[in-house]
Design brief:
By secondary structure, the chain is an alpha/beta fold. Helices cover 33% and strands 13% of the residues. The strands form three sheets. The protein has a six-stranded parallel sheet, sandwiched between helices. Strand 3, helix 6 and strand 4 form a beta-alpha-beta unit. The radius of gyration is 21 Å and the shape is globular.
Length: 372
């Protein structure tokens, strides 16, 4: 069976996007698992003596030998990267007051480079836009940090008496995700009317548990090359909320934008970015300070209740009507329309599957990034 994407989008007031590497491949950054071209395949070929390709992203191995990581960073992350169509689509959602938050596992900073404000992005795995000393936690001068890496060197702390290695502000395996992630995720996900999952297999906990924090009636849209286990891809009547658009993410975004009448606005954003492709978003912190996590009341990220209330105030009403009008006759593969009254509760499911989801959620609550 098929369903109009309008079944998901036409009623949207508050949207949360969940992202990973799949949306940055078009920017020249390989994903992790693609056979022959993924980052893990490249690491395996370049560093055959590593215990595993994932070791390169382990904090223990980084402390032992940071050279492989900085070599990879120089080759893959410090080039002249430009946001993709998918990044600009998310920015367009924000401009239309539809986006509540963008949760991303990416560390490349392309969301902000596309124009998303810092308050709209939660970088669950950190970012290469910041760096700090492993020993004294002093924030690094990012210009010097980048220059040292591009020259093939290992950046060290410049503080008197400290020669610690400068670590990029990303979450390595064995480190905990930011407190901001655990603080914001429950309220954000429960406030969302729609969750858009783009370019991710959702295999790495605790990030993979975001979907389970959404309300049972929250619509979920998957834009990905392949189906993921967290989605109900059946065509049974019990699947009342999941829609999957499988294929190239950039092409899917272009199709959806055209269907809802946003294609001109999206092209304008892309053109504006291409005209200033060398721009770089500065790190949100200055060098010389101590690195501290952004969490709770000190965070620049507004709480979900206030943000979602602002979004629901009517700013998105016109675009909701346009989405419904433009999509009323279009069809994309997904779940069937819910029957009358079905949105009053979750789809019928076995108690065993509910217990399994609960167990996974408890397992992920430790907060440490786990290897896929």
């Amino acid at each position: 069976m098929c369903v109009c994407v309008s079944c998901v989008l036409s009623c949207v007031c508050v949207c949360v996007c969940v992202l990973r590497k799949g949306i940055s491949v078009a920017a020249g950054i390989p994903d992790y698992r693609s056979p022959g071209s993924g980052i893990y395949e490249l690491v395996k070929k370049q560093y055959p003596n590593l215990p595993s390709p994932q070791s390169l992203f382990s904090i223990e191995y980084f402390r032992e030998d940071p050279r492989p990581y900085f070599t990879l960073t120089k080759e893959r992350f410090l080039g002249n990267l430009t946001p993709t169509r998918a990044h600009h689509f998310i920015n367009l959602l924000a401009k239309k007051k539809i986006l509540l938050r963008c949760y991303t596992q990416n560390v490349d900073g392309l969301e902000q480079q596309a124009g998303l404000p810092e308050s709209s992005v939660l970088e669950a795995h950190g970012s290469i836009r910041t760096a700090a000393c492993l020993e004294c936690q002093t924030k690094a001068d990012m210009q010097q940090f980048r220059a040292t890496i591009m020259d093939g060197g290992i950046p060290h702390c410049s503080q008197p008496g400290c020669e610690g290695v400068i670590k990029p502000g990303i979450v390595f395996y064995g480190e905990s995700l930011s407190q901001a992630f655990h603080h914001m995720a429950p309220s954000d996900m429960s406030a969302a009317d729609l969750v858009i999952v783009m370019g991710t297999s959702l295999r790495v906990a605790p990030f993979s548990m975001l979907l389970h924090k959404a309300r049972p009636t929250t619509a979920r849209l998957l834009l990905n090359m392949e189906m993921i286990s967290a989605f109900d891809h059946s065509e049974k009547d019990s699947n009342y909320r999941d829609v999957a658009v499988l294929g190239d993410v950039q092409a899917s975004v272009a199709t959806i934008s055209q269907k809802v009448g946003w294609d001109k606005e999206l092209r304008a954003l892309i053109g504006k970015d291409e005209s200033s492709a060398t721009k770089r978003i500065p790190a949100p912190t200055s060098p010389g300070d101590k690195a501290e996590p952004s969490v709770g009341k000190s965070s620049s990220i507004p709480p979900a209740a206030a943000a979602s209330q602002t979004i629901r105030s009517g700013a998105a009403t016109k675009d909701k009507q346009r989405m419904h009008a433009h999509l009323s006759k279009s069809t994309l593969k997904g779940s069937p329309k819910p029957s009358k009254g079905q949105h009053s509760g979750p789809a019928k499911s076995s108690s065993s599957s509910t217990k399994a989801a609960t167990a996974r959620s408890k397992h992920a609550d430790s907060g440490k990034a786990r290897k896929p």
